[in-house]
Amino acid sequence: MSSMLAADVNVAQNVGFYIIAAIMVFGALRVVSGRNVVHTALWLVVVLGGVAAQYLLAAAEFVAISQVMVYIGAVMVLFLFGIMLTRATIGEESDLNNKNWSIGIPVSLLLAGTLVWVIVDQYRGEVLASPDEPMSTTAISDVFLREGLVPFLALSFVLLAAAIGAIVLARKD
Amino acid sequence: MYAVNFLILAAVLFSIGVFGVIARRNAVMVLMSIELILNSVNLNLIAFAMMNNSPEGHVFALYVIAVAAAEVGVGLAMVLMIYRNRRSIALDELSVMKG
Amino acid sequence: MLGATLSSGWFLENAWLIPLIPAIGFVFIILFGKKMPQNGSEIGIVSIGISLAISIGATFQWIDRVNSASGGSDYASGGFFGAFRAIFPTAADGGYGASFVEPVVRSWTWWQSGGLEFGLGQHIDGLAIMLLLLVTFISFLVQIYSTEYVSGDRRYTHFFASLTLFSAGMLVMVLAENMLQLILGWEIMGLCSFMLIGHWWEEEANSRAALKAFFTVRVGDVGLLVGTAIIFFGANDWAVEHGSNGFSIRGISAWALSGEASQSVLFWGGVALFIASIGKSGQFPLHTWLPDAMAGPTPVSSLLHSSTMVVAGVFLVARLYPVFFVGFDILDTTVNFITIIGGITIIVAAALAFVQDDIKKVLAYSTVSQLGYMMLGLGVGAWLPAVFHIFTHAFFKCALFLGAGSISHSGSHHSFDMKKDMGGLAKKMPITAATWMVSTAALCGIPFFSGFFSKDEIIDNASHNGYQFFYYVALVGAFMTPAYMTRATYLTFFGKPRGAAAGEHHDEGHDDAHGAAHADHDDHHDDAHDDHGAHDDHGAHHGPHESPWRITAPLIVLSILAIGSGYLNAPAFGTHYFTDWVEPVGVEVALDDEYGHSSGEEESAGIVFAAVQAGDEEYDGKAKGCGFADPSEGTVCYAPKLSHAVFSWSKAMPSIILVFAGILFSAWVCMGIYGDRRNPFAGLTSKFAPARWIHTLLVNKYYLDHLYEKVIVFAFAHPIARAAYWVNQNILDAIVNNVGRGGRRTGEWVYRNVDQRVVDGAVNASGLAASEGGHALQPVQSGKVNQYGALLFGAATVGAIVLILVNI
Predict the structure, then answer these.
(1) What is the ipTM of this complex?
(2) A1-93 maps to which CATH number?
(3) Is C800 at the interface with chain A, CB within 8 A?
(4) Residues C283, C254 contacting (CB under 8 angstroms)
């Protein structure tokens, strides 16, 4: 076992990663296979929280905090509202899947197989150096407000348009 | 940490999300599956940022988060509108676009 | 000549104000227009007027600058009047632009992204100055004209807002220092043309015409984006190395002539850019939007067709001429893409003009045909004559359109149908008729009118540069132009008044056709066909009459220019001011060692160099020079070195003869086709001085035949008269009618087969193919989102696997 580990691989970090990853994969499977709509939404919270935890492991603190605030704070609340407003049954539902849902299995297996094969083929044995300190917010904001200023402004317009569009679409009249 | 860790986790999440998009009948659940896909992409971006030790990947991940928020807002508004008009959000009943 | 300091001045340095002021005017019209006493039109006129004043100032200072470069004497600080004094003697003595005149380039950073800097600025050279003056001048006249023409319109304020922004868009494009600014102006114009053509959108045909114009031009716009991208990626490295960038027009020009540019990049970039020109300038396959654009108000057609919009495509080619020059290898071939398109356009559009009954459509096809001449000129290497043709064409075509508007406004009760509602208007509307005649003469290329000096130069240079086939094509066009214009003139101003021109617009069919429009108009004060706003006022005195001064004044000014503008560059009289002032001189220019950064408030505008000209004294047109050999070390070229054909009357003879032949032939045919049902006493032609020499012996003879037929045959039924009548009907008329019919049929055949069948057929066929393909794929379109998702991801995966396997 130790021969496979490169010298600077942090074992504790790896162990943490595998535990969180296992929880995430399990949660994701529950999201796409669960029979209770509200439960699947709660499993999605678990997956998104796991993603945030992985960001912390990858020294991306700012993104991790944004992930928690935007996804778990806002997006999930929206989802729960959406589930409530569309009068989903509380409890199990039998027809949450399509009639021919099974074609999803070969497609996603094929996709996963291809991706994993390519990734392993390319990055096998490559070790990510653990950064000494997390990526500073200053660095991120420098990119945001310098090279990335135009996309940033464009994104602001996208959000504005989405807000207006959502109101227009959902308004009763 | 190995680079493949993050990338394989992202690939698995992505495939699960794709399965959800294909299999699910309820529109809200399809939107949730899309969130899975977007998050797997973000994981990749962060992993590559770590690989190159540069902030650009983080910036792109933040872009994706913002776009995802916008997408959920509009998507759920559409779902609500469909629900109001049809009393159902089952996607296989929405086949007006049938050729 | 070394070290000659170029003069400059406030107007030249601040020419960027010219588009800015109308743009600001547009905002003010939108915000406050409706509250103004004149509903916003005064803001438009004032803003364009200020721009016109700046343009005039800049023009004088530019001329001063050119003179200071070639003369090297004390004109530098001449100022306004000094410039005026300096213009004429120096330009005549200096000979063909002996030395390089550095354009006035300024640029500011607009935004930057990823290390790329996008600038806004001005690039003032002779071409830009010429068009700035032209656009502001024509816009100014058109706005004055519009205050009368669209008065009382429901969207009067919006009309002026769009008109002002439209001019601003063209000016932005003309000034453009880089390709992005050019695209900006180009798109502003596209948007405004959509708004203006669809100004009366309540009628479905109008909004459809607006959409057609917009979408057709958009097809070409794809070419502009692609071409800009191709050129950018080709030019950027070289240009950055030389202190510029791949968007800068100077950088691109210098790169194209540097000899380091790849021929295929230039070729494909040129093709893509030329496709944009085809769309904007209504060249052959995409010309169909132009006649439909006549749905807009007449002042719009006039502005669109004379100095803006359609000229934009020609301007693009002229502006980036080095790209086309090298990319299409213009002086070493006898046929290239530009000349093919230009040549086809000349003939096809001119043939179409024969079968139109709508006076504005005749003019529209005529514009298309003339744009074909400009393109042909650029294609054969006659840069200056082509640009000069833009200049002269703007005046007389604008006058023609405004004249057509004047006729419909006051003469034919808002109808544009020459056959139904016009005829014999020359007596009723003398000013309109006279200005129309002068402009028509200029368009036809009759000697001593402006069109002759520009068009004949294009034709002459086609042969001079070895494009012998296109020389003949252009000659055929020179025959057709006067022919269809004579027909239109005859139908409009001569013969017996018909329909509304005879004052009968309140009864019979005409009223039915417009009944709905009238009702509409009463309800919400709106105009369905043309402006009826002022109609109730002048409806009181029925029948055709001359238009008010706000319409005739621009007409008179323009028709004077339709004669006078030609003498700026009349080789027959030894004048070549236009050449001196406008043509960029194709000489090698030494790069400044410190290129890149002249300190101060302005950013570096691209390649900056000392105003020093590298050695190259001979300018005989045959020597090696820019565009033929790579520039020597440390120098760059901005324009290819072009030679001019030397004018001689003997070379001009074929086209002159063809012009007169066209006029006479067409007049003869028109008499036969349109004249035979008419009262011979309505022979206005013989009384109307400017037209008398057009309609010669044959005309009068024909009227005699008619007098004979109507009066004697009908009144006395004399056997001899009968015999003469028989001869007349069966022999003379048969000849006349058959000739006429043959011409008409050819035109119709071209319209039906080429225009409708080939062009439309291609469109329909592609539609059909798509439709059949759609049917074949119909089962896949289940309408189920999930299934689409499965197909999407499945296909993507399979595609990825294929890519992986290929790359293994």
Answers:
(1) 0.90
(2) 1.20.120.1200
(3) yes
(4) no
